[in-house]
């Protein structure tokens, strides 16, 4: 069995079948060797270079010099193969024999030639010099796969070598061959002596059965007997508008024919992984075993700002806060248990840093815990619960109300505010002040008792981005967007959308940071049961989204070098997370098990979800397939 196929068979026992587009199926054996998060980038380069490489013609049947038996009767041949009857005729009628010989009428035994299929040899010689280090090595990996598969398809034998090591040909395949190719590096270019040595070796091969490819830098001389020359160089003067897009120029020379293409390179983090650790699966770093705790399915996990921490309510009523790494190359830190209030239940909560800031309700009293300010944490802060017509929350704490915190300091005055959006679409806050005399030796002042304020009604959504509270109010036939900076005393109305919204989702901080006082950043406004208004002050689109889909968040994604904004949704069967853009729809993640709860942090572009049966918690970025966090438990629901 092919060693490459053996490697794939072993992996198939450990993981599910890798879903691939139909166009990439010919290279499945190769692509399965790589982690799933790298296959798309490698597959796109394969599809781009495959037409350039083309197909290898099958080895033709050719006749050897030596016969292997008797074939038919012919009229020409050596006299040692003359038919026995002809010799008898020569004895009986010698004159007639001579006449027939002169006329070419004698009969001979024809030989049976040695006809067999000779396997061709495909040789790939790679330049490991300094001009081919870095980005050109990505093309080397892809060309290795293409040429190997090309030879296998034609029944030829594939060998490869390094220009700087003349005479050494390797026959290794699969993972070990790619590793050896990437670790073959030289600080010098191939010399004329080394190229001549390769030419001598190729001369010994039958020119009709040897297909040799030289993959090198543009300035490297060509081996005389190389049938194809591929020159690879990085395009340093990319004229595209997106300056972050890197291109490789690949020039193919075959006899008198030349063809050139521009190869788009993957993102820098993906390219680095392909060159350094192409076969390392990073999901293992994200794994945490937490067998004693099982997440609750009453509400979705909640991210802290920037997606660095994740709070997950538990079945036993407790809360665990997990550290979410900033990169798939980093392992998550230790998780923390949050103690529940000794009395009452959590009414509203938010993850602030690595702590859970929450408001607990105990009868007619509300208490504040974990907020990052002396206004609400220097002592036990307890206030009376407002009247229900101003502030209403569900009983039992089945779903935490969204909570935000802002603090500003101006000269001798410090103001801290805790905002909450209740279930009746009221936005309220508790405000605490500290007025300091700023006199040396003066007594430290205590913050004032929090004062309750009603901010707005008919609030259909809110969020907190970059020290700004964002919320929207549906009234008077439209939806008003408000922005409240921490250093401002009152909110500012920045825009009005001419639709009465039912629900609103805000995009990332970047889009809002560059919006002026009377503009808004990326948002998604639900204007009917199946219609969503999506966009910014400068561009928007109305999309029809079936009510069977669960809308998770709004974001912008990069497609073919262009930004495309749209919605992140959970499919009707709960097995697929999808992105629905202005014109295209794509799958972000497919799950073999149904997803019970899902949440998204628009600012960091991260998703967190809990699986229905195994209660596994998973966290990943929108743009990376590798998991940042993967928490498994012992419990399985039936």
General description of the model:
The chain is an alpha+beta fold and 638 residues long. It folds into 3 domains: 211 residues, no CATH class; 45 residues, no CATH class; 350 residues, 7 Propeller (Methylamine Dehydrogenase, Chain H). It has 12 helices and 37 strands. Strands 17-16-15-14-18-19-20-21 form an 8-stranded mixed sheet. A 6-stranded mixed sheet has the order 4-3-5-6-7-8, with helices on one face. Strand 7 and strand 8 form a beta hairpin. The longest helix has 18 residues. It is elongated, with a radius of gyration of 37 Å. 34% of the residues are buried.
Q: How far apart lie the N and C ends?
A: 42 Å
Number of domains: 3
Strand order in the sheet with the most strands: 17-16-15-14-18-19-20-21
Query: Taking Cα atoms only, what radius of gyration do you get, to the nearest Å?
Result: 37 Å
